[in-house]
Amino acid sequence: EFLLKHPKGELPLPVREGTETPSGIDVGGLLKETGHVALDHGFMNTAACESKITFIDGDEGILRYRGYPIEELAEKSTFLEVSYLLIYGELPTAAQQAEFNGKLRMHTLLHEEMRRFFDGFPRDAHPMAVLSSAVSALSTFYQDSLDPFDRDHVEMSTVRLMAKVPTIASYAHKKSIGQPLLYPDNRLGYVEDFLRMTFGVPAQEYEVDPVHAKALDLLFILHADHEQNCSTSTVRLVGSSQANLFASVSAGVNALFGPLHGGANQSVQEMLSEIHRTGGDVEAFVRKVKNKEDGVRLMGFGHRVYKNYDPRAALVKKAAQDVLAKLHKPDPLLDIAMRLEEIALADEYFVSRKLYPNVDFYTGVIYKAMGFPTKMFTVLFALGRLPGWIAQWREMIEDPATKLGRPRQVYVGASRRPYTPI
Ligand code: MLT
């Protein structure tokens, strides 16, 4: 049963790690020894790719962008510097950064016709749906930057996306709360202006809280890339058909929409609120998770690639503590989150399953302290992930070896059946 008929001969069927073959060989070990068994369900998966952008060692809990450890970038760089690094491959000099920021400032405004586009959405539309539609619509308004093989077009679509997505994201929020949209103010920094457009109101001075701006900048850095995750592989797959950057990124936004990917921090926040609402008994909650009672699940723990602490989670946890301490805003949900982590990390059940907090575990606490509604959490993830999507798309387009993506499908349905009319 472990053999798959294949034109090149008989190949082993993809089986899960740890599965015992009839001869009693652990398949996980066999993979390392002979390379004959793919653990990937789509054996010989053609969506696999090489990249020079992000390095992850999930066993050691290491994450690097272009060779720089995430911890160092989080401490020493701004989000725009990290965006430059991801997209162009090098940390910028002061002159390069000033030029990049200047270009972005020239493109923060949306086409006036796009306002009518926003008007057409129902007020209760999820801001992520508005974001993906608006990003897709950029292809209609900016037809001078759609050619993936023209350097100037690629550069213009890169700049336009980086500049306009914060404007679109804050418009999506304003739309959902029925407030008028605010025009960008290019005297402010990237994150600062996004906060003003999101939380400010017309004709009133809005003072950006530097603690909020710093924390959001950090969160964007931590979300900026994570190699072949669901949304990034979508951007690459769509882009491999030579679709333009706006269309490819809009597909990535949609891939991020789901609760298992970008929506995960929203699920964590809902779980923490539920524990709080029902009396805050964390031990009882953990017991339920272990006994799989009432379909209770521990959200924000475990990660497909990290079998160790997600390095981003450690940085987010610290930022959450700092933000709440500086704002003198105790949050019972943060206390519940930390208690949950403490109990889980001391429990053999979670340790043996290598279930550690991931990046989504503490992010919602910070977003909430800043005043973002839960529906905006995924949009914030998209804002942070944007330079990663752009960098991955550009790397793929620039590689002459890129082929049209076509992940393998293993047919497991009925074999040929005689046609019998009903
Ligand atoms: C991400 O940052 O994209 C998430 O951790 C999900 C992933 O990497 O698969």
Automatic annotation (TrEMBL):
NCBIfam families: cit_synth_I, PRK05614.1. Belongs to the citrate synthase family. This is Citrate synthase. It comes from Rhizocola hellebori. One of its GO terms (biological process) is tricarboxylic acid cycle. Keywords: Transferase, Tricarboxylic acid cycle. The gene is gltA. The active site is at H303, D360. Pfam families: Citrate_synt.
